[in-house]
Write a structure and sequence with these properties.
Elements lengths: L7 H24 L6 H30 L5 H23 L4 E2 L2 E2 H21 L12 H27 L13 E2 L27 E5 L4 E5 H5 L3 E9 L3 E11 H4 L8 E6 L4 E5 L7 E6 L2 E2 L9 E3 L12 E7 L13
Parallel strand pairs: 3-7, 4-13
Antiparallel strand pairs: 1-2, 4-5, 6-7, 7-10, 8-9, 8-13, 10-11, 10-12
The structure holds protoporphyrin IX containing FE, the ligand Nc1nc2c(c(=O)[nH]1)N[C@H]1C(S)=C(S)[C@@H](COP(=O)(O)O)O[C@H]1N2 and molybdenum atom.
Molybdenum atom binds next to loops.
């Protein structure tokens, strides 16, 4: 007897679970900056392959559904277009075969399409309500789910093998999935804005850094900072899919804030209003960089001072800093990603 695949209800439920896991691991993948996070990225690849395996089965369900004329059909079609865009840009980026579309970075499109997909998936499921059944937790379904997960993992391994054996560009990507761009050549390194900042024009004579340890506050000039020349080689890895390694130099945060007292976090604030909070345990690793590869920072890269946070993703590397402040607020008391 030929294997006919699961029925429509099981396909829909499996796809829902796989999509939700893809979201969770995808967000985990862009949050990870040090090599311990590689497992989240690998899990994302495996879960993504599970979605791929479900596509032909879902295709049968869709063909049946299209015979019924629902007036929300266009929303479901939009959902399908976003899902396919997410899959293709994901695979395009991992293999390296398609890394940009119409001038936009493929990874950026991947994340944007996935984020637009999320509310549509929620709506689509609520409008249909495939109810789980008790039998969904039977031993038989568990075995099938195991076989299915194994297939997805096998597909992931096969793809990784093809990428490295065929020497596709994807073979050179970092564990985060990012590609090298402008290492040791800051002028060819991309300048990146998280959401809606614009590069400010800052007069270095008038610029001051406000340093607060929670009880006292003082102002530091650029000349004061330039007295330091601590060098750190570190990799800036942006969630839009590129990374660059540079030799940064400047003042260690620890030199300006030697005593942390009872503080729980360090707030790093930009003149643009962008900010992020670090756990105090990070303090010994943070650098207020004024130069990169021996030259002052370009305006786009954070002139006069930007943060270097080794092992953390690019959005932690605050540019155009105007204030650093120790506070008693825990570091996790902030949105998971900056909102400006
Ligand atoms: C519906 C949700 C999603 C689906 C179906 C999906 C699908 C995929 C696929 C098919 C790949 C290629 C994996 C491979 O070929 O091995 C991929 C890679 C990737 N995705 Fe997603 N994704 C989703 C959501 C997200 C989200 C929300 C993010 C981040 C916020 C994200 C970040 C990434 C990253 C960083 C990679 C590159 C991994 C690498 O190159 O090793 N994904 N995704
Ligand atoms: N103030 C401010 N700092 C910021 C950002 C921003 O939009 N505003 N973008 C962040 C992101 S997402 C990245 S990847 C790096 C990019 O640094 P670069 O422009 O020097 O490459 O800066 C980070 N620092
Ligand atoms: Mo970024």
């Amino acid at each position: 007897m030929a294997f006919r695949g699961p029925g429509g209800r099981v396909t829909n439920l499996a796809l829902l679970v796989a999509l939700l896991l893809a979201f969770a691991t995808g967000v985990g993948a862009v949050a990870s900056g040090s090599s311990g996070g590689r497992w989240v990225v690998i899990a994302h690849g495996v879960v993504a392959m599970a979605v791929v395996v479900l596509v032909p089965w879902k295709g049968r369900v869709v063909r049946r559904g299209l015979r019924r004329a629902r007036h929300t059909r266009w929303l479901s079609l939009l959902l399908a277009v976003l899902a396919v865009t997410t899959l293709l840009t994901g695979i395009g980026s991992t293999t390296g075969l398609v890394r940009s579309v119409a001038g936009a970075l493929g990874m950026w499109i991947h994340i944007a399409a996935a984020l637009a997909l999320l509310p549509l998936v929620v709506w689509h499921v609520l409008a249909r309500r495939a109810r789980p059944r008790r039998a969904d937790l039977s031993r038989r379904t568990l075995i099938r789910a195991g076989l299915f997960a194994g297939t997805a993992a096998g597909l992931y391994l096969a793809q990784s093998a093809v990428v490295s054996v065929a020497g596709l560009p994807g073979a050179g990507r970092r564990f985060t999935g990012s590609y090298e761009a402008g290492s040791f050549d800051p002028d060819s390194m991309p300048s990146y804005i998280w959401l809606d900042d614009t590069t400010p024009t800052i007069d270095p004579q008038r610029w001051r850094l406000t340093v607060s340890d929670g009880s006292t506050t003082r102002e530091v000039t650029l000349r004061d900072l330039s007295a330091f020349d601590t060098r750190v080689r570190a990799t800036l890895d942006c969630t839009s899919g590129w990374y660059a390694e540079q030799d940064w130099a400047g003042a260690p945060v620890r030199a300006l804030l030697p005593h942390t007292g009872h503080a729980r976090s360090l707030l790093v604030h930009s003149t643009t209003g962008y900010w992020i909070r670090f756990p105090v345990r990070d303090l010994d690793h943070l650098l207020l960089a004024t130069t990169v590869n021996g030259t002052p920072l370009r305006p786009g890269h954070g002139f006069p001072v930007r943060l270097v946070a080794p092992g953390r993703r690019g959005f932690w590397w605050v540019k155009w800093i105007d204030r650093i402040e120790l506070t008693s607020t825990p570091w996790w008391w902030q949105p998971p990603f900056p909102l400006t």
